[in-house]
Amino acid sequence: MATKGRKLSKKDLKQPDEFITLSTRAILFARKHKREVLWGVGILVGILLIVTGVTYYFRTLNRQAFALLTEANTLAESAEKRGEAQKLYEKIVQDYSLSRASLQAHLQLGHLYFQNKEYDKAVQEYQAALKKAPQGSTVREVALISLAYAYEQSDRCAQAIETAQEIIDDPAGKLTYEALMLQGRCYEVLQNPAQALASYEQVLEKFPSIAARVDVESKVARLRKKTGTSSATSQ
């Protein structure tokens, strides 16, 4: 059988209501510390306005930058208009450096310089792209292999090999074939046939169905003969 609730005594009725007590204390505190409360509210409102403003700024910045990037990419498709495209890419990296589009602009500038055989400038743009590219992203891998190619073309094979190795060391790398082939070529330039052979053999091992297999096998056979290495001992 359910018991009846305890009746409030006269003493209980005389006790102040807890909510009213807390509210009264809050009001009294606010009156006593009016200046501090107003400062606190003002700071909070200011922070909210700043966050809103910054968010709006970056949205607008990215929208404008990507509009320019789209226009530049369209121009770059025409050999006659690549000069105009280059100016737009340069505008993006200079005036919209905080936008996400600036990463792509650095890459595209690097490609244009590479096509014009301005390899030192291409290296600078690819390095700038790498600083902005997220770790493990496809765009970072593209920047790495592009940088390695630029090093190779500017007779900096040691740096090209080192850069390509970053791709090879990534288990999820999608450009491992290109990186290994580059290393093979560069080791040959550096008169290191043993390392060149090792690179080409890795190509055959990792990519048995490549279209250029006959060409790679020819390189391997030539380097084995040059180094006096048999198939069994070279792997």
The chain-level mean pLDDT equals 85
Q: How many beta-strand elements?
A: 0
Helical content stands at over 70%
Shape: elongated
- Name the structural class: mainly alpha
CATH architecture of the largest domain: Alpha Horseshoe
- CATH C-level category of the largest domain: Mainly Alpha
The end-to-end span amounts to 88 Å
CATH topology of the largest domain: Serine Threonine Protein Phosphatase 5, Tetratricopeptide repeat
Descriptive notes:
The chain has 235 residues and is mostly helical. It has helices at residues 10-14, 18-32, 34-76, 82-95, 101-115, 119-132, 138-153, 157-168, 176-189, 193-206, 213-227, 231-234. The protein is elongated. Mean pLDDT is 85; it is low at 10-15. Helix 6 runs antiparallel to helix 7 (138-153), helix 8 (157-168) packs antiparallel against helix 9 (176-189) and helix 9 packs antiparallel against helix 10. The protein folds into 2 domains: 35-132, Serine Threonine Protein Phosphatase 5, Tetratricopeptide repeat (Alpha Horseshoe), CATH 1.25.40; 156-235. The termini are far apart. It has 12 helices and no strands.
Defining traits:
mainly alpha; 12 helices; 0% strand; elongated; Serine Threonine Protein Phosphatase 5, Tetratricopeptide repeat; 235 residues; 2 domains
Detail the topology: elements first, then pairings.
Layout: H1 10-14, H2 18-32, H3 34-76, H4 82-95, H5 101-115, H6 119-132, H7 138-153, H8 157-168, H9 176-189, H10 193-206, H11 213-227, H12 231-234
Helix pairs in contact: 2-3, 3-4, 3-5, 4-5, 5-6, 5-7, 6-7, 7-8, 7-9, 8-9, 9-10, 10-11
